[in-house]
Amino acid sequence: MSMLGKVQNFTEAETDLISQLRELLPQAIEDAGKLSSEPVDPAIWGVPLLSVDKERDLRVDVILHKFLKARNGDIAQAQQMLTNTLKWRAEFKISGILDEEFPEDVFGKVGYVHGTDGEGRPVTYNFYGSLDNKQVFGDLERFLRWRVQLHERGMQGLDFVDVADMIQVHDYDGVSVFGYDKVARAASKATVQVMSDNYPETLATKIFANVPGWGETVFNVICRWLSEDTKKKFVVVSKASAPRVLAERIGETNLPENGASDIDSQDVDEASPPPPPPPPPVATAAPELEPQPEALVSETAGLRLDDGATVDTQEHVDKHGSQI
Questions:
Q1: At residue 229, what are phi and psi to the nearest 5 degrees?
Q2: pLDDT higher than threshold 80 for residue 20
Q3: Short-list 83, 86, 10, CA closest to 44
Q4: Contact by Cβ (8 Å): 274, 257
Q5: Inter-helix orientation angle 12-23/75-91, to 10°
Q6: What is the distance, to the nearest Å, from the Cα of residue 187 to the centroid of all Cα atoms in its chain?
Q7: DSSP string of 236-284, one letter each residue
């Protein structure tokens, strides 16, 4: 038997749940095929779910554990989630999404994948300041396909042997309390739904950098509806601390240069680290106004609401949306 990878060690209880879900894989795939209007690929994130080899593919165990964790160990719910994800991947045509092209002048400044942290986890960067919301979010279908492509690019860096999740950096430099309009909110809500439903437990840490002064208040409110495991993944950093924290968390030589516009689109997914960056620009101070929750709330892609959240709390999150 081959040596276990860093992320392939489970407790006896976890192994038992994974084994039970493994036995249901053929049924989950068959159900997805019946429900989908498109042919279903019996693989996810580059890993075949039904191995033809005698040796157990432990990468499948890692993936199944994510679905089980997202459903708090409920095997039936995890199976249904996996079925729904396979159906969605077929109908959303994920197989060709990495080859799709999007206008660089629109999305190049919104987000990209660049390098890894010190543990080899891919890092995605998202920028929220000074965006033309109508241009970026106005075509919701186009935006969703770009956003899913971004996440799939990050998923390409996971081997499910030693690396099974990634880092996200959300840069709020220049974000205004007025910048979160109806168009952005609709795009945010749709994105959160897609990510939460189809990419469970794929984030190790989410770093909110260059957060304005009013942002901490908003995060304290939002965190009331998040599970303890989720809150542990959040790192909220002021503009003064951002350079130091990013260097500590990701590695100074692994950080991109300032801003998405400073990295050529042909280079953002390369593994080789860039030169050490200068400190991020100082964020424009937010006006002295009452904080608006919809202007800055957490993206829950791959993260979970508190298990005890009621319908009312879920409606609160739906109402206010979340940053993309």
A1: -60, -40
A2: yes
A3: 86
A4: yes
A5: 50
A6: 15
A7: EEETTTHHHHHHHHH-GGGSPPSSGGGS-TTTTT-SS--PPPPPPPPPP
Phi, psi for 298 (deg, rounded to 5) = -80, 145
- What's the rounded mean pLDDT across residues 265-285? 36
Q: Which of 251, 167, 165 is nearest to 208 (CA)?
A: 167
Write the CA distances from 207 to 9, 134, 248, 291, integer angstroms.
Answer: 26, 26, 12, 20
Residue pair 223/316 in contact by the 8 Å Cβ criterion:
no
Q: Which residues contact 142 (CB under 8 A, 6 or more apart)?
A: 102
Which helix (H) or strand (E) is 9 found in, with range? none
User: Facing residues of 113 across strands?
Assistant: 124
CA-to-CA distance for 103 and 109, rounded, in angstroms? Answer: 11
Three-state SS letters, 101-139: CCCHHHHCCCEEEEEECCCCCEEEEEECCCCCHHHHHCC
5, 22, 2: which is closest to 14 by C-alpha?
22
Among candidate residues 287, 320, 296, the one with its CA nearest the CA of residue 126: 296
Give the whole-angstrom CA distance, residue 287 versus residue 175: 11
Question: Cα(177)–Cα(56) distance, rounded to whole angstroms?
Answer: 51
Residue 124 in tokens: 């995605």
pLDDT band at 120, cuts 50/70/90?
A: very high
Cα angle value 77/81/86 (rounded, 5°): 150
Structure-token pair, residue 200 = 């469970």
Tell me if residue 167 falls in helix, strand or coil: strand
Q: Please report the sign of the dihedral spanned by the C-alpha atoms of residue 229, residue 301, residue 128, residue 265.
A: positive
Q: Where are the alpha helices (DSSP H) in 156-201?
A: 182-198
What digits encode the pLDDT tens for the residues 202-246?
999 999 999 887 777 777 777 777 778 778 888 888 888 999 999
Cα(59)–Cα(73) distance, integer angstroms: 18
- 3-state secondary structure at position 114: strand
Report the alpha-carbon distance of residue 69 to residue 124 in Å, rounded: 23
